Amino acid sequence: MGVKLTIKGVKEIIVLDEIRFETAEEFFENLTLEIPPPGVVVVNWVEGIVFKHTTFPWTETTIKEYIENGRIYFSALKYTPMKEYNRSISRNGVTFLVRKIKTPVLVEVVRELKKRLEG
After folding, report:
1. Helical H runs in 70-103?
2. Which helix (H) or strand (E) holds 26?
3. Most buried one in 18, 79, 84, 99, CB count within 10 A?
4. How far is Cα 18 from Cα 25, in angstroms, rounded to an integer?
5. Which phi and psi (to 5°) does residue 25 adopt?
């Protein structure tokens, strides 16, 4: 008796608020406004882009969108170029833990963001 494995994957990510920063310094400065020191914030890094996304909570509506349509909604997506990967960055009493992301869907998101930065 075998197990059937079905991988549907995400088909679409809808971003309601795209916030692009010119520099990593501006990006981290903005995020320090969201959490009082001493605090810890986890951000993501892929292929020279650092970003933080905020999703809507899992509700009946968002779960239905995800399962039936493969859609995920980001209420906000903040990003900026940051060529060098650093595991941890401190600004104004806030520590940023930077995760190297390999999740295929987030890698695709970053590749789209890079196109926006270039164009």
Report:
1. none
2. helix 24-32
3. 79
4. 18
5. -60, -45
Q: pTM of this prediction?
A: 0.90
Residue ranges of domains in the chain: 12-118
Are 53 and 14 in contact, with CB atoms under 8 Å apart? no
Residue 79 CA to residue 50 CA, distance in Å, equals 6
User: Could you report the per-residue pLDDT of 82-103, keeping only the tens digit for each?
Assistant: 999 999 999 999 999 999 999 9
Beta-strand pair 49-55/39-46: antiparallel
Question: And the tokens for 42?
Answer: 């986890």
Dihedral angle sign, alpha carbons of residues 61, 62, 64, 68: positive
pLDDT at 1 over 80: no
